[in-house]
Amino acid sequence: MVYIYKKIIGKKPYYYLRISEKKGKKAISKDLAYLGSSIEEAKNAIEHLPQYKEKIRKAHKTIHSFLESNHFLENALALKLKSDDFLGENLNEIEACRLHYCEVFKKRDELTKKEIWKNFIVEFAFNTASIEGNTITLKEAKGLLEDGMTPKNKTLREIYDLQNAEKVFLSLLDDRKELSHELIIDIHSGIVEKIDARLGYRKEDIRVLKSNFDATPGPYVLADMKLLLKWYNENKSKLHPLVLAAIFHHKFEKIHPFMDGNGRTGRMLMNYILMQSEYPPLILHKRSREEYLDALRTADNSDLTKSLIKDYSKLAQFAANELVSSYWGIFL
Predict the structure, then answer these.
(1) Which of 77, 101, 164, 237 is deepest in the core (most CB within 10 A)?
(2) What is the number of structural domains in the chain?
(3) What is the average pLDDT score of the chain?
(4) How far apart are CA 32 and CA 35, in angstroms?
(5) With a threshold of 0.90, does the pTM exceed it?
(6) Model confidence band, residue 24 (pLDDT cutoffs 50, 70, 90)
(7) For the residues 112-117, what does the mean pLDDT come to?
(8) Mean of pLDDT values over 285-299
(9) What is the residue-wise DSSP string for 170-236?
(10) Residue 249, domain member (yes or no)
(11) 258 and 218 in contact (C-beta within 8 Å)?
């Protein structure tokens, strides 16, 4: 496999074309060519290596992703942004994604954007449903949402899970409504359509299985949701949008305002908050489920009115890593 390797010497980057090959049970890596000390130099150099033309072509996607992500990372670093105690070193990576999203992705032709959104939504719907135990595979999800092929031996609930996620996400793409009780209830209603008839904020008590917190008692759900929206409005101009979205998500899940569909609704709301601030949406991956739940548990010490760094930095940085990994894999 051919890829670009970045080496830092005295805070200065140096880029190399590197190959990794298996010899027996060992993976051996070696540098093929020096590409320069900037992304622009590396881009130019990669075009003038005829002896490695076929290897570079086979690794085009990996190399292109590296060059683009690092180009926009350099642009983000040049902005010399004020540090963020929640995000730490992840801040510039997030801003690199935002720059590409606004300067490149949003300016693409409508058909290309539609295709990219379709790819994102398939991955998002699959992962958000899988976190809750849905057994439809990614391949089956693609068949269902792209070609209308109903997967065999799956329940209607599992099928509606994915179809509803797609429908709701598409409805939010161009939505500019302020976050409100009405919007939250509408999103939830779409998420559980044909799955659960219990709509609106719950008034009954609920037990959240395998959690180390008690959800808000039924009679107090509306009051706590009012507190959450008050916290959101007071902090939306103070916190980085990703931090705002991640903390809102946790507080929402701790209230657990609906009888069913809280996780799926909460992850949809995270993305709504991000897109409202011109940031790309993210995917919380099934493979990262335990890390995700652990970050939520760490934040459980907080209450609805607080957002301390010690409680939320783990969740914010986890969300940052998930956004970066999903962004460059889909939106290029």
Answers:
(1) 164
(2) 1
(3) 96
(4) 10
(5) yes
(6) confident
(7) 97
(8) 96
(9) HHHTT--PPP-HHHHHHHHHHHTTTT----SS--S----TT-SSPPPPGGGHHHHHHHHHHHHHHHT
(10) yes
(11) no
pLDDT for 222: 98
β 12-23/26-36 pair status: antiparallel
> What number of other Cβ atoms are within 10 A of residue 302's Cβ?
18
Nearest in space to 155 (alpha carbons), one of 167, 140, 176: 140
What domain range is 213 assigned to?
A: 109-330
The neighbour count for residue 283, using CB atoms within 10 Å, is: 23
DSSP helix/strand/coil, 133: coil
Closest CA relative to residue 321, chosen from 297, 285, 267: 285
> Is there a domain that residue 289 lies in?
yes
pLDDT band at 266 (very low <50, low <70, confident <90, very high): very high
State mean pLDDT over 176-190. Answer: 97
Q: Answer whether 13's CB lies under 8 Å from 51's CB.
A: no
By CB atoms closer than 10 A (0-12, 13-18, 19+), residue 154 is middle
| Residue 92 domain flag | no
Going by the DSSP 8-state scheme, the letter that residue 59 receives in this structure is: T
pLDDT in tens, 185-232: 999 999 999 999 999 999 999 988 777 778 999 999 999 999 999 999
Q: For residue 11, is it within any domain?
A: no
* pLDDT score at 183: 98
Looking up tokens 């942004």 gives 81
Q: Please, which residues have CB within 8 angstroms of residue 142's CB and are 6 or more apart in sequence?
A: 122
The average pLDDT across 265-280 equals 98
Beta strands in the chain (DSSP E): 2-9, 12-23, 26-36
CATH number at residue 188: 1.10.3290.10
Q: Residue type at 174?
A: D
